[in-house]
Design a protein that fits this description.
Elements: H1 2-35, E1 43-49, H2 58-72, E2 77-82, H3 93-98, E3 104-107, H4 131-140, H5 143-151, E4 156-163, E5 170-172, E6 186-188, H6 191-199, E7 203-205, H7 212-218, E8 223-224, H8 229-235, E9 243-246, E10 255-261, H9 262-267, H10 270-303, E11 309-312, H11 315-335, H12 337-359, H13 361-369
Parallel strand pairs: 1-2, 1-3, 6-7, 6-8, 9-11
Antiparallel strand pairs: 3-10, 4-10, 5-8, 5-9
Helix pairs in contact: 2-10, 6-11, 8-10, 11-12, 12-13
């Protein structure tokens, strides 16, 4: 009798074990199926920018990004791009992405300084790092993590997505021979550079790209910085001002950003999220390469125009602007703990990057000059 019950128990255990194994296999298969992306679903996104329609390199690059993303995703992620003003005003791009009105945006972080003061570090810092240093900070030195931490409360995820390289100091309707010539000057200059100009007695004005030429021509502003020779020539700024100064002390390596609504990004399968990331990296390099390749040709054309004078800012002016930059950054850091946190991280990385640059690029360029 005991043997019979033992046999029944053994059979029952075997049946139970088989059922458990079958259920486990079924669950494993279901989990594997769930892990596979739905390759049939198509995501239709909208993207707004701060740039004028058909604007070379900036808007052109964003259009290229959208096409690349669609191609890499085999048509599963389609991005319809709207230039500044076509769907929302240019300087409302951040709000549109944050609120989920659109899924994506492209612009520059210092445009949102009123909302996120420390975000200015993610575009350009006067007397800061060039494109090489900024990319190193983002991808290797923790800068991107700080950037995303800043944007987290706004439901926005940022990516580096373009760089203008070292810019020009700008177009002026009078010669700048001393720091006093900046007093009372109304200049279109955003971000931290604008704050430094204010320290020097000037008046910074924030204007979208499409508004700059008219403001300069009509005398609403006395000077403007924009990007560099390639863009400045196409915007026709040489027709509205005579003196073209360098170097771009205020923006030595201006970063552009791709911003994505966090909730929309989370809805994408992992492979499409990765495509967005890689697409932004490709756009970052593509834009920088275009500027580096085209600026010198445009500068030669501008310098050849009879009404244009290309000249360096006096060393005394640059020295004073640098002093005022240090004062400005320290004052801003005292007012905002988040700004201070990013500033300290930026300074630490910049010091290391400069130490390496001095014995790499710097020493090599000195060698070339000696030939």
């Amino acid at each position: 009798m005991l043997k019979r019950w033992g046999l029944f128990a053994l059979l029952g255990s075997s049946l139970l074990l088989g059922a458990c194994q079958q259920e486990s296999a079924s669950n494993t298969a279901a989990t594997a199926d769930a892990a596979q992306p739905d390759t049939t679903k198509v995501y239709n996104w909208k993207m707004v920018t701060t740039w004028p329609p058909n604007f070379p390199i900036f808007q052109q690059g964003v259009e290229k990004f959208a096409k690349d993303v669609e191609a890499m995703s085999n048509g599963r992620l389609k991005v319809q791009v709207f230039a500044g003003g076509e769907l929302v005003p240019p300087l409302q791009t951040f709000d549109a992405v944050s609120q989920g009105t659109v899924q994506m945006g492209h612009g520059a972080a210092y445009y949102w300084a009123g909302k996120v003061p420390a975000a200015q570090f993610m575009t350009a810092v006067p007397f800061g790092m060039t494109a090489k240093g900024m990319n190193s900070w983002f991808y290797q030195g923790g800068g991107l993590e700080l950037w995303r931490e800043m944007y987290e409360p706004f439901n926005v995820v940022p990516y580096p997505a373009g760089n203008s390289g070292v810019q020009m100091a700008g177009w002026f309707n009078k010669k700048i021979e001393s720091i006093d010539d900046l007093k009372g000057l109304k200049m279109r200059i955003p971000g931290l550079g604008g704050k430094v100009l204010a320290k020097a007695g000037g008046t910074p004005v924030l204007l979208a790209g499409g508004e700059i030429y008219t403001a300069l021509e009509r005398g609403t502003i006395d000077a403007t910085e924009w990007v560099g020779p390639f863009h400045d020539e196409r915007l026709g700024l040489y027709r509205a001002a005579q003196y073209y100064y360098y170097p771009g002390w205020h923006e030595p390596g201006t970063v552009l950003e791709l911003i994505v609504n966090k909730e929309a990004l989370a809805e994408l399968p992992e492979d499409l999220q990765k495509i967005v990331e890689i697409g932004a990296q490709a756009l970052n390099q593509w834009m920088y390469s275009k500027f580096e390749g085209l600026n010198i040709q445009s500068l030669r054309e501008l310098a050849a125009k009879p009404n244009v004078e290309v000249m360096p800012l006096p060393e005394t002016v640059l020295a004073e602007l640098r002093r005022l930059t240090d004062i400005t950054l320290n004052e801003e850091a005292e007012k905002d703990p988040k700004f201070k946190k990013v500033y300290e991280a930026f300074k630490a990385f910049k010091a290391d990057h400069q130490a390496w640059t001095d014995i790499s690029d710097g020493a090599y360029y000195d060698l070339l000059k000696a030939e």
